[in-house]
Design brief:
CATH class of the largest domain: Alpha Beta
Number of domains: 2
Bound molecules: iron/sulfur cluster
CATH topology of the largest domain: TIM Barrel
Structural class: alpha/beta
Shape: globular
Helix content: 25-40%
Distance between the termini: 27 Å
Number of helices: 11
Order of helices and strands: EHHHEEEEEEEHEHEHEHHEHEHEH
Strand order of the largest sheet: 3-4-5-6-9-10-11-12-13-14
Strand content: 15-25%
Number of strands: 14
CATH superfamily of the largest domain: Aldolase class I
């Protein structure tokens, strides 16, 4: 049996044609699942009994199980999911003024081994299915009271999204589809470390979510060391690929830059960064690394972070310092996997 959660609209349409069913039933089914949240095909009362029976024979409706919920003093909440094969993944719900963001995972572990990231120490255990990918959103949303429901999604949790291409693209299509999850594409951000071949493929898809690129260095020698993927796709190659496919009008790429003491946080780095990104419609998100066990990197001083930001602003960049959230529960950037390690 197949989980219908995460099953793409296109595949469902194909299946209905094979079954000799009218295509408009696809939207009805999606509506029952994603808008009305039914968990049983028998509840789909505007669909014929025979189609409901076919659906029931072929599919089931299932969500990843929330095993544990940990709440930070700032309200950020980390959800630990136990998957069907006993793998664990984490999602983080982040409340802020006017928005509630869910950071979701795409893989159990990650093969890209960035040195500042705990998930990278796990290696890749496996890819998530599209059901597990969108299921995190659905399971958390169902557990939240009405006023705390998710408004924004960032795909920045465990794993490299573009390294799990098809399930992530299928999931994204469901997220933005008005018939399914109906999340506006400007409310979704996909973050990538820069798998250039997949990035180029993704830029060719008709999916216009926000794009964030985890850059983190201004010289290949440094990026090679902290993000080994750079040996395959050096900074120039990555930036050229981004330049080749300009974003839609009024959209900007976010460049993420984790500041690591003595590694990439000098004034010379700020100068090089400003030169590298010249001409890009972009925002720069500076993330001051915060020490935690299991990762051999150090926090930069507050003064260094502010100097770095001020230089970028003086060069007319929009540069933010990301507010640290959920650090007391290891829910911040790069910290996911602690619980996963604890239970495996
Ligand atoms: S930062 Fe992202 S791409 Fe790098 S190891 Fe961590 S999860 Fe993987």
């Amino acid at each position: 049996m197949i989980n219908i959660i995460g099953y793409s609209e296109a595949k469902l349409a194909l299946l209905f044609t094979e079954w000799g069913e009218k295509s408009f039933h696809v939207h009805q089914v999606l509506n029952w699942i994603y808008h009305r949240g039914v968990e049983d095909f028998s509840e789909m009362t505007n669909i014929s009994k025979s189609l409901r029976a076919k659906l029931d024979d072929y599919f089931f409706i299932g969500f990843p199980r929330i095993e544990k919920k940990t709440v930070s003093k700032d309200g950020t909440t980390k959800y630990l999911f136990c998957l069907d094969d006993d793998s664990r993944i984490e999602s983080v719900w982040i409340p802020d003024t006017g928005r509630k963001t869910l950071c979701i995972s795409t893989q159990v572990g990650c093969r890209l081994a960035c040195t500042f990231c705990l998930t990278g120490t796990l290696g890749l255990k496996r890819n998530l299915t599209s059901a597990e990918f969108v299921g995190q959103y659905m399971a958390v949303n169902r557990a939240l009271p009405e006023e705390d429901r998710i408004t924004n999604v960032v795909i920045m949790g465990m794993g490299e999204p573009l390294d799990n291409y098809e399930p992530v693209v299928d999931g994204l299509r469901l997220m933005v589809s008005p018939e399914a999850m109906a999340i506006g594409n400007r409310r979704i951000t996909l973050s990538t470390s820069g798998l250039v071949d997949k990035l180029e493929q993704f830029q060719g898809e008709d999916i216009h979510v926000n794009l964030a690129v985890s850059l983190n260095a201004t010289e290949d020698s440094t990026r090679d060391r902290i993000m080994p993927i750079n040996k395959k796709y050096p900074i120039r190659v990555l930036l050229d690929a981004l330049r080749k496919h300009p974003l839609k009008k009024s959209r900007r790429i976010t460049f993420e830059y984790v500041l690591l003491k003595g590694v990439n946080d000098t004034h010379a780095d700020a100068v090089r960064l400003a030169k590298l990104l010249k001409g890009f419609p972009c925002k720069i998100n500076l993330i001051a690394f915060n020490d935690f066990e299991g990762v051999d990197c150090q926090s930069p001083s507050r003064e260094t972070v502010l100097d770095f930001q001020n230089y970028l602003i003086s060069k007319n960049y929009t540069a933010f310092i990301r507010k640290p959230r959920g650090e007391d529960i290891l829910g911040a950037c790069g910290q996911l996997a602690a619980e996963t390690l604890a239970v495996s």
